[in-house]
Protein backbone atom coordinates (compact mmCIF):
# COMPACT_ATOMS: atom_id res chain seq x y z
CA UNK A 1 0.00 0.00 0.00
CA UNK A 2 2.82 2.40 0.88
CA UNK A 3 4.51 1.66 -2.45
CA UNK A 4 1.35 2.62 -4.37
CA UNK A 5 1.15 5.87 -2.42
CA UNK A 6 4.78 6.63 -3.31
CA UNK A 7 4.10 5.95 -7.02
CA UNK A 8 1.03 8.20 -6.86
CA UNK A 9 3.00 11.06 -5.26
CA UNK A 10 5.76 10.79 -7.89
CA UNK A 11 3.10 10.80 -10.59
CA UNK A 12 1.44 13.82 -9.00
CA UNK A 13 4.70 15.81 -9.09
CA UNK A 14 5.19 15.00 -12.79
CA UNK A 15 1.59 15.85 -13.66
CA UNK A 16 1.77 19.19 -11.84
CA UNK A 17 4.94 20.01 -13.78
CA UNK A 18 3.31 18.95 -17.04
CA UNK A 19 0.14 20.92 -16.44
CA UNK A 20 2.08 24.04 -15.46
CA UNK A 21 4.16 23.76 -18.64
CA UNK A 22 0.96 23.18 -20.61
CA UNK A 23 -0.57 26.39 -19.22
CA UNK A 24 2.61 28.39 -19.94
CA UNK A 25 2.77 27.08 -23.51
CA UNK A 26 -0.90 27.87 -24.15
CA UNK A 27 -0.49 31.40 -22.85
CA UNK A 28 2.69 31.98 -24.85
CA UNK A 29 1.20 30.45 -28.01
CA UNK A 30 -1.21 33.36 -28.17
CA UNK A 31 1.73 35.68 -28.69
CA UNK A 32 4.12 33.58 -30.74
CA UNK A 33 2.80 31.02 -33.22
CA UNK A 34 5.20 28.14 -33.74
CA UNK A 35 5.39 26.34 -37.03
CA UNK A 36 3.07 23.34 -37.21
CA UNK A 37 5.61 21.46 -39.32
CA UNK A 38 8.22 21.21 -36.57
CA UNK A 39 9.98 17.90 -36.85
CA UNK A 40 8.39 15.34 -34.51
CA UNK A 41 11.75 14.02 -33.30
CA UNK A 42 12.94 17.53 -32.52
CA UNK A 43 9.72 18.13 -30.60
CA UNK A 44 10.23 14.99 -28.51
CA UNK A 45 13.81 16.01 -27.76
CA UNK A 46 12.63 19.49 -26.78
CA UNK A 47 10.01 18.12 -24.36
CA UNK A 48 12.54 15.65 -22.94
CA UNK A 49 14.90 18.60 -22.32
CA UNK A 50 12.10 20.59 -20.70
CA UNK A 51 11.36 17.56 -18.54
CA UNK A 52 15.01 17.44 -17.46
CA UNK A 53 14.87 21.13 -16.55
CA UNK A 54 11.57 20.89 -14.67
CA UNK A 55 12.86 17.75 -12.92
CA UNK A 56 15.90 19.70 -11.78
CA UNK A 57 13.62 22.48 -10.50
CA UNK A 58 11.52 19.91 -8.64
CA UNK A 59 14.65 18.66 -6.88
CA UNK A 60 15.13 22.15 -5.48
CA UNK A 61 11.62 21.95 -4.00
CA UNK A 62 11.52 18.22 -3.12
CA UNK A 63 15.15 17.08 -2.58
CA UNK A 64 14.18 13.67 -1.16
CA UNK A 65 13.17 10.78 -3.39
CA UNK A 66 9.53 9.90 -3.11
CA UNK A 67 9.83 6.40 -4.56
CA UNK A 68 12.92 4.52 -3.38
CA UNK A 69 12.27 0.79 -3.36
CA UNK A 70 15.29 -1.50 -3.16
CA UNK A 71 13.42 -4.31 -4.93
CA UNK A 72 12.10 -2.20 -7.80
CA UNK A 73 14.71 0.54 -8.11
CA UNK A 74 13.83 2.77 -11.06
CA UNK A 75 10.23 1.61 -11.44
CA UNK A 76 9.11 5.24 -11.44
CA UNK A 77 11.11 5.66 -14.64
CA UNK A 78 8.51 3.55 -16.41
CA UNK A 79 5.21 3.79 -14.53
CA UNK A 80 4.89 7.52 -13.92
CA UNK A 81 5.82 8.64 -17.48
CA UNK A 82 3.24 6.22 -18.91
CA UNK A 83 0.59 7.55 -16.53
CA UNK A 84 1.62 11.14 -17.31
CA UNK A 85 1.46 10.43 -21.06
CA UNK A 86 -2.08 9.08 -20.71
CA UNK A 87 -3.06 12.06 -18.56
CA UNK A 88 -1.68 14.61 -21.03
CA UNK A 89 -3.42 12.85 -23.93
CA UNK A 90 -6.68 12.92 -21.92
CA UNK A 91 -6.22 16.67 -21.42
CA UNK A 92 -5.70 17.00 -25.17
CA UNK A 93 -8.80 14.93 -25.87
CA UNK A 94 -10.88 17.14 -23.57
CA UNK A 95 -9.53 20.33 -25.17
CA UNK A 96 -10.19 18.91 -28.64
CA UNK A 97 -13.82 18.15 -27.72
CA UNK A 98 -14.18 21.74 -26.49
CA UNK A 99 -12.80 23.04 -29.79
CA UNK A 100 -9.74 24.63 -28.18
CA UNK A 101 -6.23 24.92 -29.57
CA UNK A 102 -4.01 21.92 -28.84
CA UNK A 103 -0.28 21.83 -28.34
CA UNK A 104 1.98 18.82 -28.81
CA UNK A 105 2.49 18.35 -25.08
CA UNK A 106 -1.13 17.18 -25.04
CA UNK A 107 -0.23 13.96 -26.85
CA UNK A 108 0.87 10.72 -25.25
CA UNK A 109 4.35 10.72 -26.76
CA UNK A 110 5.26 14.29 -25.80
CA UNK A 111 3.72 13.92 -22.34
CA UNK A 112 5.64 10.66 -21.88
CA UNK A 113 9.00 12.14 -22.91
CA UNK A 114 8.47 15.21 -20.72
CA UNK A 115 7.64 13.04 -17.68
CA UNK A 116 10.47 10.62 -18.52
CA UNK A 117 12.96 13.50 -18.40
CA UNK A 118 11.59 14.57 -15.02
CA UNK A 119 11.67 11.02 -13.65
CA UNK A 120 15.21 10.44 -14.93
CA UNK A 121 16.61 13.54 -13.24
CA UNK A 122 14.77 12.75 -10.01
CA UNK A 123 16.01 9.16 -10.07
CA UNK A 124 19.62 10.16 -10.64
CA UNK A 125 19.91 13.17 -8.35
CA UNK A 126 17.57 12.75 -5.38
CA UNK A 127 18.70 11.42 -2.03
In short:
With 127 residues, this protein is mostly helical. The chain has four helices and no strands.
Q: What can you tell me about this protein's structure?
A:
This protein is mostly helical. The protein has a domain at 43-127. 71% of the residues lie in helices and 0% in strands. Helix 1 (2-29) packs across helix 4 (108-125).
From the alpha carbons, calculate the radius of gyration and give it in angstroms. 15 Å
Number of helices: 4
The portion of residues forming beta strands comes to: under 5%
The number of strands is 0
Secondary-structure class = mainly alpha
Shape: globular
Largest sheet: none
Helix content: over 70%
Distance between the termini: 22 Å
N-to-C SSE string, H for helix and E for strand: HHHH
Q: What number is the mean pLDDT? A: 80
Q: Can you tell me the residue ranges where pLDDT is under 50 for at least 5 consecutive residues?
A: none
Write the layout of secondary structure elements.
Layout: H1 2-29, H2 40-61, H3 76-97, H4 108-125
Features:
mainly alpha, 71% helix, single chain, 0% strand, 127 residues, 4 helices
Amino acid sequence: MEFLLEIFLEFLIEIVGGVLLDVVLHVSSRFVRTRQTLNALLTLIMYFGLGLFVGWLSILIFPKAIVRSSNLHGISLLITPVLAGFTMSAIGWIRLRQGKLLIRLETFSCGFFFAFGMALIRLLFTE
